[in-house]
Amino acid sequence: MYKNIKKERIMSETKIVVCIKHVGCIYHPTAVDLSTGEIDPEKMVYMPNPYDECAVEAALQIKEAYEDCKISLVSVGDTTAEQTLRYAYAMGGDRIDQVIRIHCDNYQHMDAMKTSRMLSNVIERIGFDVILCGKKALDTNGCQVGTYIAENLSLPEVSSVVGLSVFFEKNQVVAERYMGKGDRQEVECILPGLFSVEIGLNDPRYPTLKNRLFANKKAIEVIDPVAEDLISKDTPLTRMEKFSFPRPKTRKVFAPDSNLSPLERMNAMLSGGGGGKKSGSSVLEGDDDKLAGYVIEFLTQNKILGTNR
Amino acid sequence: MKGILPAVQHYNGIPGNILLQVIVVVAIVTFLFILYRRFSLLRLGQKDPRLFSFLDQLTGLLTEGILQRRQVRYPEAGILHIFIFWGFIVLGLRSVNLFAEGMFPGFAFPFMKGGVGAFYNSLKDIFEITTLGACMGAIYHRAFIKPKRYEGSHQLEAYLVLGLISILMITDLMYEGTDLLLGTPIPGVTLGSMAISWVFSGLAPGELKFVHITSYWVHILCLLTFLNLLPLSKHFHIITALPNVFLKKQVRGQLKPANWESVSISDLSHAGAGSLKDFTWKHMLDFFSCTECGRCTDNCSANLVGRHLSPKKVTMDVRDHGYREVPIMPLPSSTTSQALVGDVIQEDDLWACTTCGSCEEQCPVFIDHVDKIVDMRRHLVLNDSRFPSEFKQVFKNLEIYGDTIGKGKLFREDWISGVSVKKIYEETVPVDILFWTGCMGPLYDEKSKDSLRATAKVLNNTGLNWGILGKQERCCGDWARRVGNEYLFEQLAKQNVEILKKYKIQKLVTHCPHCFNTFKNEYPQLGLDIEVVHTVELLESLLKTGKLKIKSRLDRNLTYHDPCYLGRYNSIYDAPRKDLGMILKQSLKEMDRSNNKSFCCGAGGGNFWRGGAAGQRMEEVRIEEAMVTEANGIVTACPYCKIMFNSAVKEKGREHTFSVLDISEVVEQVSK
Asked: B532 forms bridges with which residues in the sheet?
């Protein structure tokens, strides 16, 4: 339906909307009270969803190429979610034009359909050419909201994006999708469209001091979904019934290899693994030049290097 | 009154005194102009309050400046320098006298009559000979011994100046010696002049007069050349070093705030040193004062393991950059477009610094190297968001979890097993002492927790009323501050100050020297005023007063490693040694590099979290030093050092024969 839109684009009217979630993550194994299903707030930490951070970074990179376009950030959440919005705003500072919070008190337990309804209503009001969001939220692991928004707005969606090139003049986006196991797909998409991004898309920038201070003072627009009739009246279609902890694992509990340096141990701990499978791997030896040679050889053989990108 | 004065001679019909007056005026005007240009560079700098206690600063000036205490740490060069320095002080009067004599014939200082004059003449003569000797020694030292620390310094400048000083000494001796021969009585025992007069005794009076007058003029011209050369070369330190020593830092462990003029980082639009004018005026004075002696680089832990960083080069490069930006003669083409960080200073060099403070400890003129490095890091982190990629996760950990490791606050209480520990938020009665565990102790690994448990047992044995904050603790912010993230430091510090005030804590005992330094020296800037001690100090007082009783002395062969933030930054060298002295049977083995020369474990200044540093591993170098002493264990008082050494010992495959212990673990073994 969008095929014939290829009109002359007025860049100042071009809009990028980024959806962000303030996620609450459990860091302690006994955080959830199994009898009541309640989470001990002491055992939770809140942070910006890392997938959404990549979406913000992607938006900022588009803005660096097309200076006149406008970026809006939208989030559903209570007042604490402003922390995340401020962090995301601080990533770009005054390059981000609009920050909106859709007020919602118990957004953590809200069903994805409802959230996406609110978001798509607001996004429609803002206007959009590119909608960016994270592939999934770290806390619920739902992967739904992006798809629902695309459906609500009748947009094409490209999911699990690990490469993104926007050509506003051609009204087109070339996106690279991650298909698992290292396979990739290149997808061409006509604008407007929704892109849900994967964590490997980019390396989100760390806010500078100037932008942090900007962000602390930034006025965030708050939309009350009830007053503005954005919320769908129908009862949620899904509801959480029960929460259970992972079954005790049979595999050996990972202890950092004490032969590693503290940094390597730290990295191993942060990645949460025991260093991966050992089979089929070999240790490369030689001086730096030689080692770099091996790596380049490997990369070209596996067509990671030397392609047209 | 001299017999023959150069001043009353005529040169091509010009009276000598007039000629000299003109030369002196020209030289001094040039000198003042150069000084003015240098001063305009200094005035570019930011505010930096350096006057705090006149008496203390004067004492510092006397011991470190006039008595040159730090010079003797390098005996050869140090003693030579002391001779030259004292030569300058004594001979200053003589030079003024020579100029006055030349410009105003018949001039003499009124106090230089009789005994005083004779004494001064004798003294002057001795110092001329010693200074000359010292110059020769220094030339020999540079040319033949060639210490590695002079690499990259301006060697030609050094030879030129040493040559000039030697000429000054020789010409003055010749001037006096020929004067003696020409029949002027010189009061005092002037051995040097007498020796010269013996050399020239064969000359005819006309020739003597020629030598006499020539040596006067050579002396005067050399001195004026020398004077103008000073602000143009590394020998500017002759003028600026003493003020620099007088204006040294008040609190050694306190990092310079992002800006002295603002209370909070939120008042600043940019922070850190991204260009020359972001340094403070004192930093500019530091640049002027650098003698390029290379003691900093010679002791730099990073440099010694083969990293490219050299504190001397950093100071020299920024100084040369400054001289290019504010040249003596501003030419239209002279403005450069070099960026301070990136072009002048390599980014990688900035991150290689472990902030061990060894450079500052050794610098004879008290240059603040670490402040500048951290200021440039601040620029990278706060303005440009450029830093080693590993740091981003740690920044986020600090923001989200409140600790560097990213485990979460409840894990801060995980180490409490098998010991009874009061948690301050559960108690109704306030505790006397708050024990601050830090991040590394409770969160890193079991060995780190062991040292905390040991401390807890020892404290329980003494019956002290103490407690911990547990889950209400946050990282003290040392890590964030040292890598330049002042914003994050301020956030964390404010939370900590608030909670300490909430519980009305009066005395804080810290497990980690980094926390200790931060609480003791940096939190007062944020309005926290409490007593802060490190565990080693508490243990010392407990052992001394007998509150902590020991079963029997421990028979172990150990060596002690001085953590940077305990030793160099806070001068706590004796307390841990006394602790160990009171509980060990054998005397403590000392490593070659100990006390203020202690080597860094490699974890400080953000380097714990940074991979890919060039060169050897610092912790391994240090462990090798410890093993050379034939001790079978190393004691330290810092959780970072313990982690680093543990990994180094494992790397060497010596974990069963060589132990890495926290001092509290040693004490715990004997306490009852």
From this structure: B508
10 Å CB burial of residue A283 (0-12, 13-18, 19+) is exposed
3-state SS class at A188: strand
- Tell me phi and psi for residue B88, to 5 degrees: -60, -40
Q: How far apart are CA A195 and CA B307, in angstroms?
A: 44
Q: What residues of B are in contact with residue A86 (Cβ under 8 Å)?
A: none
Q: Is it the case that residue A199 has pLDDT exceeding 50?
A: yes
Binding-site residues on chain B for chain A (CB distance < 8 A): 265-266, 268-271, 381-385, 387, 389-390, 392-393, 395-396, 399-401, 405-411, 445, 471, 486-487, 603, 608-611, 617, 643-644, 646-647, 650-651
Q: Could you give the residue ranges of the DSSP H alpha helices within chain A? A: 50-65, 81-92, 112-126, 145-152, 209-217, 262-271, 288-301
Pairing outcome for strands A130-134 and A15-20: parallel
Q: Is the CB of residue A69 less than 8 Å from the CB of residue A123?
A: no
Q: How far is A275 from chain B (nearest CA, A)?
A: 17
For A144, residues 6+ apart whose C-beta sits below 8 A from its C-beta are: A112, A113, A116
| CA atoms of B603 and B607, how far apart (whole Å) | 5
Q: Whole-prediction pTM value?
A: 0.89
Specify the amino acid at residue B568: R
User: What percentage of residues in chain B have a pLDDT greater than 90?
Assistant: 70
Task: Please report the ipTM that was assigned to this predicted complex.
Answer: 0.88
Q: What are phi and psi of B345, to 5 degrees?
A: -115, 130
Residue B58 clears pLDDT 60, i.e. is over it? yes
Could you tell me which chain A residue has the CA closest to the CA of B395? A206
